[in-house]
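Section handout 9: paired folding examples.
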Amino acid sequence: MKRTFPLIGLSIAFLVTAGLSAVAQPAADSAISATRVFGKVTEINTSAGTLTVKTEAGSVVAVTTNEKTTFQRMPPGETDRSKAEPTSLTEIAAGDGIYALGYVAADRKSVPAQKIYVVSQSEISKRNAAQRMAWARGAKGIVSAINPAAKEITVTSRSLTGASQAVTVAVADNAKLRRYPPDSIPKYENAKTAKFEEIKVGDQLNARGEKNAEGTHLAAEEVLFGTFKVAGGTVTAIDPAANTITINDLQTKKPMTIMLKPETVVRRFQPMMGGMGGGAGAPGGGGAPGAGAPGQGAGNGQGQAAANRPAGAGPGAGGGQGPGAGGPRPGGGMNMADLLERLPTISITELKVGDMIIMSTLPGSDPTKTTAISMVAGVEPLLQMIAARQAAGGQPRPQNVDLNSNFGGMFGGIGP
């Protein structure tokens, strides 16, 4: 019979990359029960046969082994224990996730392990890097047209050169479709299985798969989408204690309160040397601005949204916490959302009154409040550039920039 982890145990890989669900009190730490402990390895003493494990809730447990302890290595993301392969204590490294089975002491501070399942952090990193690149080579932007009969979606975006980029995404019956719930910060593991009919014009969408030679058609293997909005404005007040900022909305000219969640990724735009036009060294030419890691979630936003994603978080990124480097796209340079996901992350304390920001948001019933998914500060030069191009000799007006069409796809959360 096929053996799998009990549901309460979750996937080891998920525990390592996405964190453990636990309450604050060690006695109620859900990562510890009478017969098992799971968490990350912080210390190893191979000569003594001991491991120090720390759960996401902060509990520290001493795991002891002996000659009867068996060790099994799980592939990243796998939950079927029959897929595990034999390993040894000497092959475990700090940062690896382990699931130790044994009778836990009454004080929950030690366990003599009978069996240990381990997932390598380095293997997780390799897998995530490969998946980031797969998403980066895909398509992202705003759904501009849908062909139900052919099961095709047209996704449009713009490069820094201003060129409109359109990719036709073909969705085969075996493709995975996942939708981000409209009332939560998009995280890859929270995306729900969806149907083609749920995709609507105006949705933000990321797809991974194989493109044709011209880069205009993609056979989708997986599609992530959600109903998000790109908004912007000038920061007028910052409240680090409440994790909120107030902006003067770019379009409405009215105050708006922005809530930043722990998963919110905040970045700062840094104009590159050589201008922002699209020549050599400019963003439009495919250069990599800033020092941020490519991709969906993961910066650490506000000390936030760290580590589990392809840093730079999407197809993202958030990253994914998304994918990062996608290279030039058809139609005149790098996709705007791809470029922004490469920028370095900052904390809310690094935001300044007067900063102009753009952000992907969760639309709500109250137009004066919204939650930021992914935010980029210091974008006034970028908006001025786009506005000047649109003005065609007239006066550039950043408030006239269509944020959704220019920055569609920056909702983060891509990639496990």
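Moving on to protein 2 of 2.
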Amino acid sequence: MASVRRARAAAGSIVFLAVAPGTVAGVGPWLLTRWHSTGPPAWLQVLGWLAIAVGSGVLLEAFGRFVVDGIGTPAPVAPTANLVVGGLYRYIRNPMYVAVAAVILGQAAVLGRWVLVGYAAVFGATVWSFVHWYEEPTLRRQFGAQYEQYLRAVPGWWPRRPRRPPA
């Protein structure tokens, strides 16, 4: 039965990956730039491609973690059964959002398009608001003390080694 639940979680996560990050980090930047470059310096393009690669890898690992550890999806309509605290979630509570921002900023560097830096800032403000006003209260209700302990031990937006929660 667990394998069936994980298979459903994987299918739902793949769909959500295509819809949410695919739209935000793919369709949105394309609509703003049509992928036209201003010809930034090569070093900036290299940094941009690095940010895109790392951000994409982080995003895929985080989505996989929701399936394997959480037995659910990142989508609010199909949440996890378990609080996801493994993998990159040991170092940062919001690796998906940070990864999407890295991809957008990487595109800004590759294309030399400041409009994508502004878009990344709007994205950041939007996801911060979503996390603060919806996601954290929802996780507090769903996971209680376990989530409170996780909040104290792991930073939200800038990765670092987790602190041991007070005993």
